[in-house]
Fold ABC transporter permease.
Amino acid sequence: MSVRLYMLLIKASLRSRMQYKFNFFFSTVMASFVHISEFLMVALVMMRFGNIKGWTLYEVCYLYGVMMISKAIYRTLASDVHHLEKYLVSGDLDALLTRPVPVLLALMTQNSRLLFAEVGQGIILLFIAMKALMADGQIGWSAVPLTVLIILTGAIILFAIGLATAAAGFWLTRIESLQNMTEDASQTAARYPLSLYPKWLQGALLVLVPVGFVNYIPTLYLLRHQGGIGMLIGTITVSFVALWLAMRFWKLGLSRYQSTGS
């Protein structure tokens, strides 16, 4: 029932967004330019020096593509979880509390948008990377369904991180700076091999904000054949544990929420 209701609400939200077609296409094109320019800068450096600490351009391309698609899925299916602060500051969360649906479900379906640019570019990056890696014999066709699994678990982890950060807003109200660290900065860092960073930062990106499990840890198993199947099982476990903890934290925060009318 909740899934059906979610699909109905998100379709209605997407239809309302598509009424402004020029804004939709303009934002898609601009997002494409931004992401292309970011990756090209990295690609040009790696083409000049060959690899970075043993990681080839195609391996980094794979990391980048997985992160891009996972993030796009999270932001498409739960867009306004990332923007909870504006609901808390303006008092608009009160309106969601009066709806006959769970607050989180109502929030997730607000202002939904399809991130075609991010998904499309992520698919292109993965296609280029996996084609080259298959040609070198580094991976086989079994990597295709495993990559889909990695992307889905990655989206769950990113949603869990975003939800837990948003829930902190019930105490802090202003959470933009916190989101810059737990979501934006951490996701940017995890586009590249964590082995490039000092040990303390690697630990933070695997334990405190587990974005390393979105792409780096499963990639060690899939592309570099390190750690065995336990790396993939651990990734799946982390995704569900992170989601469970985030949901618990959200419910606790919501129970402490003080309405603007109270």
About this structure: The beta strands are 51-52, 55-56.
